[in-house]
Amino acid sequence: MADLILGQVLTFTGDPFAEGLAAARHLRHGAVLVEHGRIAAIGESAVLRATHPAARVTDYGQHLISAGFIDAHVHYPQTAIIASWGKRLIDWLNSYTFPEEMRFADPAYAGAVAERYCELTLANGTTSFCSYATIHPESVDAIFTAAQAQGQRVWAGKTCMDRNAPEGLRDTAQTAYDDSKRLLARWHGVGRLSYVITPRFSPTSTPDQLAALGALWAENPSCLMQTHLSEQTDEIDWVKSLFPAARDYLDTYEAHGLLGKGGLYGHAIHLTEREKARLAEVDASLIHCPTSNTFIGSGLFDMGGLKAAGHRIGLATDTGGGSSFSMLRTMAAAYEVGQLRGRALHPAELWWLATAGSAQALHAADCIGTIAPGMEADLVVIDLASTAAIEQATRRADDIWQAIFPTIMMGDDRAIHATWVGGKPTAR
Ligand code: GUN
Ligand code: ZN
């Protein structure tokens, strides 16, 4: 049976960074028709009600219906160590992250955290995410199994590390290749799941391992590849000492077949001019993780400059280096980072980044990230007056952007009134 969902509707027909507000479509009394898990129509409520009288109606009143949020870079295994105090990147990895990731050798533990993570994402209106697992193949099975149960469109991959990580958290060039290949064959393209080739970052992979994963990517070009790039200056110095022949950090990937369209480069803060030019030339995706960049003290991503230069950019929490599971909180942090760089991001730009922008970064804009006929029906329904503080700040709003901005800046999971995945409302 078809579902007709009523409320305010917000979506994008283009990129507001390039086209301004003409890229946004807002319907004050809108409707979304959902059939067989996909969006069949979007339009004025009165029109769709008249043309689809048999549809089951869910009326969300003044709540805002948007494409579900898409989190383009997360570490689901770091769910339990989110908000760990006092460390910068390398110490944070050694003190908190690696000991926690060690626990994923136990499939029962991996399964429990994976389920918890999927529940947390849905409570925050996130219908898709792209996650690192741990080095343990079972940790990939765990997150795909949990996502499959919820029906979410999810990307994930086995994190590969063969040096500078503790005993018990290292693979080899060969086992990284073999395990990734086996997992890819098992999961890539199964339902809404996609495998991502995942070298953690250059400091934890030997050149041999990077080359092996570069070869695997060349053999499987329909896969995305994710890694980290130029997050902290100490990390960049470390990469220089480990790869003395490399021109720069990006070159450590490029030299091993790990630079290309379909490559997702997390953080990308301290880039040289050559790195920026190469990333743009190959149309790689840069993933901005603003709560992580302030929490771990990494630096300020240059959204204005990189968008103006034509880079493909997604938005992400980077849980648990990031300090939130919420894409609303992440938009707020992106706004604050933009302010510190002298570029106030418009609410339309922030919302686009969390939906259509991340979908483009993941090369999935043909199926998720916007509300249009044929798209998969992943939706979030937002209460734009979810707390007393937000409600009073929106009372004088003249347009959707003024009405939405207090929720961007102050909203949390209380603003998530409902989340639809694959055409079905999720239980709350
Ligand atoms: N660089 C390498 N691994 C990680 C990680 O787990 N989190 C963050 N923020 N940066 C990294
Ligand atoms: Zn990360």
UniProtKB/TrEMBL annotation:
Q: How is the cofactor bound?
A: Binds 1 zinc ion per subunit.
Which intervals hold domain Aminodeoxyfutalosine deaminase/Imidazolonepropionase-like composite? 30-55
Enzyme class, spelled out:
hydrolase
Amidohydrolase-related domain boundaries:
65-424
Listed GO CC annotations? cytosol
Superkingdom of the organism of origin: Bacteria
Q: In which pathway does it act?
A: Purine metabolism; guanine degradation; xanthine from guanine: step 1/1
Q: What's the cofactor?
A: Zn(2+)
Q: Give the matching InterPro entries.
A: Amidohydro-rel, Guanine_deaminase, Metal-dep_hydrolase_composite, Metal_Hydrolase, Metallo-dep_hydrolases, MQNX/HUTI_composite_N
**Entry keyword set:** Hydrolase, Metal-binding, Zinc
GO MF terms on file? guanine deaminase activity; zinc ion binding
Which residue ranges run through the membrane? none
GO-annotated biological processes: guanine catabolic process
Enzyme Commission (EC) number: 3.5.4.3
Q: Which PANTHER family match?
A: GUANINE DEAMINASE
The family note in this entry says: Belongs to the metallo-dependent hydrolases superfamily. ATZ/TRZ family.
What is this protein for, i.e. what is its function?
Catalyzes the hydrolytic deamination of guanine, producing xanthine and ammonia.
In its UniProt entry, what is this protein called? Guanine deaminase
